[in-house]
Amino acid sequence: xxxxxxxxxxxxxxISPIINAQSWVTALGGSIMRPEVxxxxxxxxxxxxxxxxxxxxxxxxxxxxxEAERGLVTAGCSAAQVLMVAACMTxxxxxxxxxxxxxxxxxxxxxxxxxxxxxxxxxxxxxxATLVEFGTEExxxxxxxxxxINENTACxxxxxxxxxxxxxxIEETIRVAHEHGVxxxxxxxxxxxxxxxxSKFHKxxxxxxxxxxxxxxxxxxxxxxxxxxADLMEAVVMNSLNLDSSIAGIGRPMKVxxxxxxxxxxxxxxxxxxxxxxxxxxxxxKAQLVAERLAGIDGVRxxxxxxxxxxxxxxPVLYFEDDYKGPSIAEIKNRLETxxxxxxxxxxxxxxxxxxxxxxxxxxxxxxxxxxxxxLRG
Length: 378
Ligand SMILES: *Cc1c(COP(=O)(O)O)cnc(C)c1O
Prior knowledge:
Blueprint: H1 8-12, E1 18-21, H2 35-45, H3 51-66, E2 70-74, H4 77-90, H5 94-99, E3 109-113, H6 122-125, E4 130-134, H7 142-148, E5 153-159, H8 170-179, E6 184-187, H9 197-203, E7 208-212, E8 224-228, H10 230-240, H11 258-273, H12 276-293, E9 300-305, E10 315-320, H13 329-337, E11 342-347, E12 352-354, H14 364-377
The structure holds pyridoxal-5'-phosphate.
């Protein structure tokens, strides 16, 4: 593990070391919190606190970072997705908050471009809503969106993610939705860094925007941040933080611990103060090293790519040409994952292997290059 000590607590459970070259994926642990974040969480764990007051205060930090009217720490981006839709459904009605997930009498349709359907969109219907798709898997028109909106529309959802098609684009989506008096909610879970994205979608007029706290921001893995317009965010609070009410809201199973609130806020402040250029350079030099060591393999073209619409930081991408005769992508991945340490790289859903550097700890890039060479040149 390149000088890092494998934690005793994992060892005791029989869990072996892995290298995460697949990005901030939940399945591999999200991200690693900085010592300052862990220290703040440790401090927070040692005292009782009014959790609602704490999250409202933390929400002010979130709102400032996102340049939004109001913010809140959530139990992940998925939890924020549930809360955004719930808020659009209930508004400020306490009776509605109590009634969810039964949507009777409430607007309950979430409109989403078909090309943005994804494995996380179940969260949009969790509060009792229904998804209404528009367009095709590839594209959509303004008319498609217009036709999908009706008097039952609670909100239009927009998803920003690597390789995700944009349909009519976020600006046109917002324009059309607002023309119909319908709010736009955004799932941008893994779109930071760059930190300018924290405020980007708010500036474009989105009503609420959600990010994961445990991905690029480096907060607790089960944290997230949600920010947006004040009235909708008040409805979010009602659906999630009515902790003293006799009937808790739909957000109760997604509670945020005091430690996670403090962890997220601390990570967010470090993230917004960080030297993005220096971090990018580090990823870039690791990517270059691996690319150089994998150069000249028959039938394999290695390119370092960093297009932010597709890639999470600079990373070597391996393309397999027609004359490639080595093991299949699935076989390569299997051999990497079952080795010691297990190495998890991206790719497979497309015809490529990509080696994402954002979570590769110092020195691990050499282990990755060596193992790839064993498999590809062996
Ligand atoms: C990771 C991800 C989520 C879920 O975020 P959590 O913080 O893990 O709840 C939702 N949407 C997209 C596009 C994601 O990448």
